[in-house]
Structures are given as C-alpha cells and as structure tokens.
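Figure S7 source data.
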Amino acid sequence: MPRKNFYITTPIYYPSGSPHMGHAYSSIIADVLARFKRIEGYNVHFLTGTDEHGLKIQREAEKSGKETQLFCDEISKKFKNLTKILNLSNNDFIRTTEMRHHKSVESIWNKLIQSGDIYLDKYKGWYSISDEAYYDEDEIKDLNGEKIAISSGSIVEWVEEDSFFFKLSSWSEKLLAHYKSNPKFIMPSSRRNEVVRFVEKGLSDLSVSRTSFSWGIPVPKNSKHVIYVWLDALTNYLSALDFPDTSCKLYSNYWPADLHIIGKDILRFHAIYWPAFLMAANIPLPKRVFGHGWILSEEKKMSKSIGNILDPLEIIENYGIDQLRYYLIKEVSLGNDGNISLINLKKCINNDLANNYGNLCQRVFSFIKKNCSNKIPNKETNSKKGKELTDKLKNNIEELVELMNNQDLNTYIKSIIDYSFDSNKYFNDSEPWSLKKTNLKEMNSVLFFITEQIKNISILLLPVIPISANKVLDILNVDKSLRNLTGITKNDNLLSNKELGNIEILFKKVE
Ligand code: MSP
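Tokens for the predicted 5'-O-[(L-methionyl)-sulphamoyl]adenosine complex:
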C-alpha cells in the first residue's frame, strides 16, 4: 500500500527581533505532530520559515540602521539556527523574500484579479503596524490619549491611502457553510465558535495593498502598491510546494495542507482571510487550522515590552532540549494559555524524566547488565502481569493515534508517562532480585516484558523527546526501520538475546 502524505506548517515568524519562547512553542508543537505522523507511517512535509515583508520589518530595519534585506538575512538566520537548536525535523525553511515565494504571490494575486475579487478604492481606517492588521472602530479604544486595538493592546494609527480591496464581504456565507460542513476545520472548538460568531456579524472588504511604503511584493502591473503582508505571508504555505506549478510532485503530494499550527492571535487571518483567498482563487482549502494558546510567564503573555521573557536558548543550554520540549508539551494544555516557570520546569524534569522514565531505563538496564551478562533474556514463563502490562499499551495504540489526530498532545503524553509509572511499579512488585534466588525463569520473563515495555514507551516518546528516546532504543539495539508504531505492534520477538549497548545517564536531576 502506498504511504499516505501529510503536510504540516508552523506560522512563519517575523524576523523583527530574536526568537523567544512563544515562537519555540509553536515550532515544537508542530514538530511533535510531524514526528508522530512519521512514526505512524506517513510521508510528512513539515514547513517553517520567516515572514519578512511589511512596514513593521521595514521600520525595525530602519531603527537598526541596516539595509532591510541585510537586516532580514541576519535575523532570519537566527530563526533558522533555532530550528537546529530545537531539533526540528522540518523539511524546508521558507523566506518570503525568496524568488519562489514572489512568483507564487504574484500568481495568487493574478488569480484574484481574474476572478473579479479585487477592486481599486481608497482605504480609510485604523491600522496596527505591530499586528500588521486593520481594525474597525468597535475594535479599538482610547488608552492614555492613544488609540489601541482591544484584542492585542497594540497602538493603531489612522491610515488613508489608495488601496486594492479584496471582496471579503461576498465570502461570509461560503465560509460559514464551510465551517458547518467541516466542523474540525478550526480547532479547538472554542476557537471555532469565536470565528463563527465573528463571521456571522458580516465581513467587510479587506484592503490588500499599501502605497505608503515599499518593502513588499509589488502589485503586478501597478508597482506603486505593495501587496498586503498577510496575503503575501499566507501564500508561503503554497510557495513552498512550488505553486503555481500545480502539476509538480510537491504540490500534488501535499496540497491541501493537513494542518496549520498557529497561535490564537493569528486565527482570524488563517481561519477567515486564508480560506476566502483560496476559495476565490479556486484552490482547495487546508484541512485544519489549530490555534494554540499563549505561553504566559507570571500570568502574562511573554513579551519584550513586559520584560517577562524566558529565553529558550538559555533554558536549553542549562537543562537540555528534550527537557524543554517535554515540559512545554506536558505543562501547557494545547489550545489554552499556559503559565510556565523555572520552578515547574525543574519539577517536571525531576518527576517525569529523571525519577520516572529515566529511572525505569536505568534500573532495568543495570539489572540486566549485572545479572544476565548484559543480554536481554527470553520470555520463559507466561507471566500474566507482564503480558497485561505490555498488552495494555499495545491495545491502546489506536486510541493514542486518535488523540494525536485531534492534537490532544497533553492526554497523549500523560498516558505515556503513566505507562512508565506502571512499569516502575511492575518492576518493584515483581522483585526480580528475589526471583533471582527463587525462580530464574520468572525473573527472565519479568525482564523480557519490562524491556519490551521500555522499547514501546520509547517509541511513543520519540516525537516528544527524540534525542533521549533514540538513546534508549540504541541501547536496546532496535533497528531504525522499527522505530515506529510497527515496531510496537509487530509480534516478532524483537529484543531477546540482544546485548545491551552502553548505558548512559539519560536525565540528570536538577536542583
Ligand atoms: N508572521 C506572522 C505569522 C504569519 S503566518 C502566515 C506572525 N509572526 S510572529 O512572529 O509574530 O508570531 C508567530 C507565532 O508565534 C504566532 O502564532 C504567535 O502566536 C506565536 N507566539 C508569539 N508569542 C507567543 C506566546 N507568548 N505564546 C505562544 N505563542 C505566541 O504572527
């Protein structure tokens, strides 16, 4: 049977400052899901990148005194480096200043012109440069003599200029019909309801070009205008598949996208504008947009201006990347806002990784090394409890797949760590050290079942803590081709009689 394809994306990040924990969070979520789909047997295309046009970037570059492209090159490089530091398994990194993207945006624009969805008029209204978004009068308020957007708190300014408009108003009904017939198009459902309520109020046409600055992709045949940065940015998901060449392999294999992972602050762009642009251009819609919550520090959104930023690079240097990945996925309930702190990070590393999973591997491997000449024993009795332990996990695979297909990362990770807890208990209760003196066959069976369970837990942990889980699978000599769900469900005796590799400490306890 041919393998199925799966296309997943992160938001593309503004290279306006150094990457922070919020960016790391979006990317880690997408990476965990991408890696899970791979172990499930899919060909996965995983895209991330940087969103480099618009007034916000132009102004940041001016402030730094650098030429805009050079400014983008430097910061985009930091985001690219971050993909390595976060151990992302992305297949591509797109920059909106690349030629492939430019071509793709021009093509979308031309399609919208041809379909009659774009017209020329004058824009008058409020605009936030920080959000690169337009706001209606009822979406702003006065604060200390300044006008700010209620939703984001960013300052808005009055803009009046010639502008092309997209006929968004004519797409409301079709969008609502799409949400209705595809109830999982926007997830989680609380976010979906927000969007539906907003669209039901009726949509205004959207200004999709600007004339007051030049850092962007010029409107074809009218270079006085540059294309609105969100129409430009959203198209990255297509440019990376070589759109408009729809007959190419990338596009035909991976479009429509299966999953756009985004933060809740950019839901409107992905769940309203993007599908409307695509419908108007007659391009199939992505299957799902998942809007995750914010990472909070001291109960507030992490931001430069508040000064409550936890630097991912510092944390990774002090505690390790698997540790950070595990913590973010376990601690923050996906879809909701979640508070993170150093104290809880340390607790999580000690409780779940060092004392639970790490300890399980360590004690079982050391026992085998000491008592079985370092060789994993064979099952010699039908140890009921051991079989129960391993069957419980094996029989739950479909449910775990279902959880991941609904992006329920928290329940997934809690189930896996519970398996590890149960395995520690099984090891304690079975007392292989006593069995050594009384029932060697039973001891061997206990060790057989527990190593089998460690292998299966490690496979399930691969998407979240790939470095550590692979270390364990290396120690167990599990073939690379079986480091996936087949390696769990396959009934062959994969481990017995294999010698254990070098055992090393997986997770150090932290103070
Ligand atoms: N460039 C746009 C996205 C274009 S996608 C076609 C953008 N960039 S961003 O750099 O400002 O933010 C990118 C993502 O990081 C957003 O999804 C945003 O929600 C996420 N985060 C930024 N700060 C965050 C937190 N404090 N917590 C969690 N994620 C947040 O928007």
